[in-house]
Amino acid sequence: MNYLEIANHPLMWVGAEAVGETLGAGMSTTAFATSVWVMVLGSLGWLIFTLLFTDKMDKVNHLLSKGNEKLVPIISACAMLGAFAYLASGNFITGEGSVTFTSPSAIATIIGCVIMMILSKIAKDKNIQWIKEWALSFAIFGGMIISTVIVNMM
Asked: Measured between alpha carbons, how far is 27 from 53 in angstroms, rounded to an integer?
């Protein structure tokens, strides 16, 4: 089982290619470490952006909603849905450009989505705040673990 298929990320490819290797089971520890560092450093920009501009989001929300406060949750939900759809869509595209639902990363994404929906429903119905806060983490790890088991059974 190639665990890199489940944790497949474009920046991992960049990191492996930076040291002259390809992403896969035969890659060296140096290439793997480089790939991880590239992913970490590649995400730092978003953390810095968040640090600098979080306090200005009220102005952006007011501008986008044109003063209608009822639109803010709808706009926020649409933005998050679009971001997650964009990030997850790569898990369903093969190297040949066709759509698949049976690759390890697609299975992990589907299972994670189902776990997230179940946990969100439980948190909302029973008003459990800590589940709301941890649902995404549980869904991500649950999707990876369960898909690894399923893929190894295939």
From this structure: 39
* Type of residue numbered 53: F
Give the per-residue pLDDT at 146: 93
Structure tokens at 28: 């060296």
The pLDDT, as a whole number, for residue 5 is 53
User: How many CB atoms are located within 10 Å of the residue 64 CB?
Assistant: 13
Our CA dihedral for 91, 92, 93, 98, rounded to 10 degrees, sits at: 170
Check: pTM over 0.85? Answer yes or no.
no
CA distance 73 to 153: 42
Q: In angstroms, how far is CA 48 from the centroid of its own chain?
A: 19
Nearest to 112 by CA among 146, 82, 79: 146
Beta bridge partners of 93: 99
The overall longest dimension of the chain from CA atoms, in Å, is 56
- Per-run averaged pLDDT (10 residues), the chain, 154 residues: 55 76 78 82 86 84 79 86 87 80 88 94 94 92 92 84
Tokens of 7: 């944790």
The token pair at 22 is: 């390809």
